[in-house]
Design brief:
mainly alpha; 3 helices; 124 residues
């Protein structure tokens, strides 16, 4: 019994990786929410900003990452000025930043495998 890598096997392998990355993404999202987002919500609330003002479809998950890694994104001329990213300076630890990066990695990996699965499944 030999194994040949044909298009059906490739689609099955991609589907397996896609499911794996989606599961890992949800696990990391739960960790990210419990460890980082709740802490940053408290910091934002302590400065008088209600998270419900800018949390449309859980957008604050990405806004917090942008505030930590790319604070210049929040400028008044871009009309994306939700809160001052300097509020979060010194509030995030290295572990929080690693969790943010891992969260982004698994999200993008899942999207890439979904796209590859769509492309390869169109050949079957």
């Amino acid at each position: 019994m030999s194994f040949s890598l044909n298009i059906e096997n490739t689609v099955s392998i991609l589907a397996g990786f896609m499911v794996l990355f989606i599961i890992l993404y949800y696990i990391v999202t739960l960790i990210y929410y419990l460890k980082v987002v709740k802490k940053l919500d408290k910091v934002i609330l302590s400065h008088g900003i209600d998270k419900d003002q800018f949390d449309l479809f859980y957008r604050r998950f990405n806004d917090y990452k942008k505030a930590v890694f790319n604070p210049s994104f929040f400028t008044e001329k871009k009309k994306v000025y939700i809160f001052d990213p300097k509020i979060l300076e010194g509030r995030t630890t290295n572990t929080d930043k690693k969790i943010m990066k891992i969260h982004t990695f698994f999200y993008r990996a899942a999207l890439i495998f979904v796209a590859l699965l769509v492309i390869f499944s169109s050949f079957t």
